[in-house]
Amino acid sequence: MAEVIGAAELLGRESDAELLAVRLAHAQRLGNMGWAEWHLHTGETIWSDQVYVIFGRDPALGPIPLPELADLVEPADMGALDRLLWSVVRGIEPVQAEFRIRRGAGTGELRDLRVVLEPLSAPGGPVGMHGVIQDITGRRRAERMVSESRRQLLEARERAAEERHVMLAMREAILPGPAGRLELPHARIAVRYVPAEKTANLGGDWFEAAPTPDGRLLLAIGDVSGHGLPAIARMAQLRHALVGLAMTGRPAHRLLAWLNELVMHQLKDTTATAIIGHLDPETRVLAWSQAGNLAPVLVRDGVATRLTQPRGVLLGADWPGPYELATTRLLPGDLLLMFTDGLVERRTRDIDVGLDLVMAAARDVSARDLEPGLDRLLARIGGPNPEDDACLLAVGVPAREEERPG
């Protein structure tokens, strides 16, 4: 009976050893690592099965002796191998290093290895070394890809910043802001150009506020379709054409008709929206026309409303009907806002929501604080549009008590 029990215990220990060996081999495959020993005095080298896989070597050829290991190492990494071996034969602590090898006969696939070694000690000193070899090629490749992606992203950001700087400089050269607030005998004018947050979405929004030879004030805003330098170039053509045509003294609806002819025949595959008006500084009557633009907002006695638009379609459309002219007389305390669609449109909300926000914020803007009032309005409606630029032109009429001297 004792013999039977002993045999069973021996068989159990052998089964446990086999199971442990299987699990160890599985762990080495999952981690792509193996163990190795080099005995300095005898020259004996022992490798686990996974080390053969790492080096791409046929197990029938046996492990690579330590003196021949250098033949597989990349020449640039020989220093790392030398320092590793020198450190392990002189010390008692494990040391590690990373270097690259060529699999096979030293001309095959390049692999990144991490090697951790410690000395095999005897009473007379180290007699060899043993340790773990891990193939970290995949990890290093992923790190290099991440590093390269970061480098490319940084370069792209730098290019985008430079492009944005160039485009904004061009816009400023083409569309200089007015020198402060424009003061008229009975009205004040302020404008804002709000560039898109994304460089690629800088577009063709523009404004104009300038006196005409007959004493009226030309007020206009517009938006040319598209983004980037082509849209900015077309915007410049359209705006400069308007400035020249305005010198004729013709009314706004006639100017729009001429601009429509220009867009249709000279700016192919282009459309644009616009509002053009002439403000009489004495009577405060604004005679205006529109071409597909959102209606201006008038704030009077604390109530914001959208003006009824005269007939007109966007520039570049083949429309037989004439552009109509409307007149709006501004009263003391009034505020009139003209703006392009980039002010109210967002991908994340309906345009009517944006219009409601503008109308609510406009009630707190007055001629007395026109400049800071516009800044507050822009902040309350969500700040710059990430997807599109915008122009905002405001006409504020001082209340009667503000017009009195002293």
From TrEMBL:
SMART domains: PP2C_SIG (SM00331). Residues 95-148 form the PAC domain. Pfam families: SpoIIE (PF07228). SUPFAM superfamilies: PP2C-like, PYP-like sensor domain (PAS domain). One of its GO terms (molecular function) is phosphatase activity. Keywords: Hydrolase. This is Serine/threonine protein phosphatase.
